[in-house]
């Protein structure tokens, strides 16, 4: 039978969450005969448990070199895909049973909608950080948006190839770049009619801090070659401004200028307070004020450090060309 939907899942590392992702696909309220799953693995081999899933799903495992980016794996999987529609998933999401049916319905009913994603929901016993991430992810629901995260994306294969696939030169922020390119062809839609649990969501603040440093490395590089909407600029400017103010406050204290130190500290803390207030409203009582403040006290410096690290790497790379 001709495949209608091709799931493309890049994977590297442990398989536990990947298996949960695949089981959620197998549990779709959709004709499995019309679906195929392509796992692009950067491991050297697959487990017996993963291989056994080929009895439930039209599952293909493609191996990729471990030094390639996630975009390279996604594009490699897309080239293997036979389906009319492509569903890109991260290897750590569990889909609601109506995900495939809902995604197909949204894209099919409106010619102006070219890319759709389902909303995030909390897993069982979700800690405060996961609830924060979910609240931020669902800031806009059942509406057209300017960006969609790469964890679950659904689009027609023709749309994918019109924009040239995912940007393989980016280590992170590839979803910003890709969804912006797709947005030039039509609308992006974030729906509450289907959902997913991000199994690999951040659970603790200190590991999140380290991960955000890594995530920020491609911040500025992702700006090249695409238009930057005004609403996106704060995500680049505010972290740098906050960290700069706090560093200036420390310098002013060292040189015995307490007045300027106070002004610099206040300049750095005001965005934290403003963003924490917005997050408290988005969370609708699900997360307390202390957790919201803690999140941005770590998030902004980490993003700034990652951005600076990315600049240094880019300069180092260019200097050896």
UniProtKB/TrEMBL annotation:
UniProt KW keywords: Membrane, Transferase, Transmembrane, Transmembrane helix
Statement: the UniProt record of this protein carries the keyword Isomerase: no
Protein name (Swiss-Prot/TrEMBL): Glycosyltransferase family 2 protein
Species of origin: Alteromonas aestuariivivens
UniProt xrefs under Gene3D superfamilies: Spore Coat Polysaccharide Biosynthesis Protein SpsA, Chain A
Gene Ontology biological process: single-species biofilm formation
Chain segments annotated as transmembrane: 236-256, 262-280
Molecular function GO terms recorded: transferase activity
A matching Pfam family: Glycos_transf_2
Entry-linked CDD domains: Glyco_tranf_GTA_type
């Amino acid at each position: 039978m001709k495949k209608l939907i091709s799931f493309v899942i890049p994977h590297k590392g442990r398989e536990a969450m990947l298996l949960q992702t695949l089981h959620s696909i197998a549990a779709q309220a959709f004709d499995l005969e019309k679906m195929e799953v392509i796992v692009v693995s950067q491991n050297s081999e697959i487990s017996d448990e993963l291989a056994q899933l080929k009895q439930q799903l039209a599952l293909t495992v493609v191996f990729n070199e471990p030094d390639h980016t996630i975009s390279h794996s996604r594009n490699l999987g897309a080239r293997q895909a036979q389906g009319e529609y492509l569903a890109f998933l991260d290897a750590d999401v569990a889909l609601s049973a109506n995900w495939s049916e809902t995604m197909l319905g949204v894209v099919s009913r409106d010619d102006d909608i070219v890319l759709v994603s389902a909303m995030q929901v909390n897993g069982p016993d979700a800690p405060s950080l996961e609830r924060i991430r979910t609240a931020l992810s669902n800031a806009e629901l059942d509406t057209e948006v300017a960006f969609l995260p790469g964890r679950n994306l659904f689009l027609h294969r023709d749309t994918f190839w019109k924009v040239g696939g995912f940007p393989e030169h980016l280590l992170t922020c590839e979803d910003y770049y890709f969804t912006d390119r797709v947005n030039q062809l039509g609308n992006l839609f974030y729906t509450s009619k289907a959902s997913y649990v991000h199994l690999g969501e951040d659970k603790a603040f200190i590991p999140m801090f380290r991960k955000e440093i890594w995530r920020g490395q491609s911040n500025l590089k992702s700006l090249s070659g695409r238009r930057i909407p005004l609403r996106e600029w704060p995500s680049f400017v505010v972290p740098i401004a906050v960290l700069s103010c706090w560093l200036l406050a420390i310098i002013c204290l060292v040189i015995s200028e307490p007045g300027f130190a106070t002004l610099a500290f206040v300049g750095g803390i005001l965005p934290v307070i403003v963003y924490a207030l917005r997050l408290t409203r988005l969370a609708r009582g699900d997360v307390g004020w202390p957790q919201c403040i803690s999140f941005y006290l770590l998030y902004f410096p980490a993003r700034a450090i990652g951005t600076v690290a990315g600049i240094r790497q880019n300069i180092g790379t260019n200097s050896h060309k």
